[in-house]
Amino acid sequence: MRAERKDKRRSEIESVALEVMRQRGYEGASMLNIAKAAKASNETLYRWYGDKQQLFLEIVKSNAADAEAALDKALAADLPPENILEEMGKRMLHLLLGERAVALNRAAASDASGHLGAAIAKGGRERVFPKIVMLMGALRKAGLIDPPNDEQAAKWFLGLLIGDLQTRRIIGTLPQPTRTQINDHVETTLQAFYRLCGPR
Amino acid sequence: MRAERKDKRRSEIESVALEVMRQRGYEGASMLNIAKAAKASNETLYRWYGDKQQLFLEIVKSNAADAEAALDKALAADLPPENILEEMGKRMLHLLLGERAVALNRAAASDASGHLGAAIAKGGRERVFPKIVMLMGALRKAGLIDPPNDEQAAKWFLGLLIGDLQTRRIIGTLPQPTRTQINDHVETTLQAFYRLCGPR
DNA sequence: GTAAAGACGTATAGATGTGTACGATTTTTG
DNA sequence: CAAAAATCGTACACATCTATACGTCTTTAC
């Protein structure tokens, strides 16, 4: 199989794996079920990924790379920091509450070894949080906020932004929000955030 | 088996089930494993609970009852509302980030049917959130806060209080916080909350 | 074009889970 | 104390998953 076709096939399989997981849970997403759904053989799955956990680890990694790229794009935009913060909020909610991230978080919750959770944290929060802290520094230097420190500001922003939405998505009691709902929520969050961290 | 002994045996079994689930995940917590660990027969488990999902539904219900009792105790205390809010924050963090709630949330995340998640929401958030809203009303009437509305204040309080701690606990990247850590976190949260919702 | 490599489908062994059945033993009831 | 009920432990049928093996077919490389 040529390298490019193989890459395409791999991402097809990973996409199908996530879809099976979405419909039948982490338990139901056996290597056999995934192979059937992807019209692949389980031998190929075992050859390529080793086992189920490593398959999902790959998915976590590629999802983290996609997410980071989406956020970096917003950060690199030539806009005033308050607009970047708004854009970051929208993109983060879109990512965190979307089907892919929710499915992966469910997988991590089902995985008693903790490896999936560690990979999510490493590719997600640990890479994103410093960027938010930096952004808070930019906002502070622009005189838009005056928090105790940038890290605290980032924590408050994320708390106000995400609240219990992510947990409710993960346990399945909240449907995926629409773009409009996300935009409204970000607007409310920003008002609260500036009220909380704005200069006296 | 006498009624009182049977009740005790049931809660023993449910406690063991949660412990097995904690160590081996929802997948690994098979009826057989639970029966062995509880020194019961799987026949008894099937007779009493029907199947694995209903067993965990029972655990969710009794946990919700315990949690509600703990919170109601704080609400009924004869204290000024700001002290009640502080106490509620501590108790909620203690409950939400404790082993029991985390294990049950993981079970709900693993359960593709959504029944466990629905039960957690029904016994948890849906019962607790209105109490927080009421408490916000009391704080507002006491002139301690001046939010857009009580519900929004409750959402902000919970967002600032919980942040991403619960998700990180569920995916296994955060250890259970100590009582000291909880107290410190609640103090910081309250400062932020009053800064956000305090009268102008 | 032909040989090598790899993917597919099926088959397989071994392990484990679900839900039920059945004696043996213990506990409750009268 | 004796009969009845319930639990325990084991066994069972059935299904499914993991991980591997093998023959066939397609794709790649020379």
Automatic annotation (TrEMBL), chains A, B:
Residues 7-67 form the HTH tetR-type domain. Residues 30-49 bind DNA. SUPFAM superfamilies: Homeodomain-like. InterPro entries: Homeodomain-like_sf (IPR009057), HTH-type_TetR-like_transc_reg (IPR050109), HTH_TetR (IPR001647), TetR_C_Proteobacteria (IPR039536). One of its GO terms (molecular function) is transcription cis-regulatory region binding. It comes from the Bacteria. Gene3D superfamilies: Homeodomain-like, Tetracycline Repressor, domain 2. Keywords: DNA-binding. Transmembrane segments: none annotated. It holds the Pfam family TetR_C_7. This is Transcriptional regulator, TetR family.
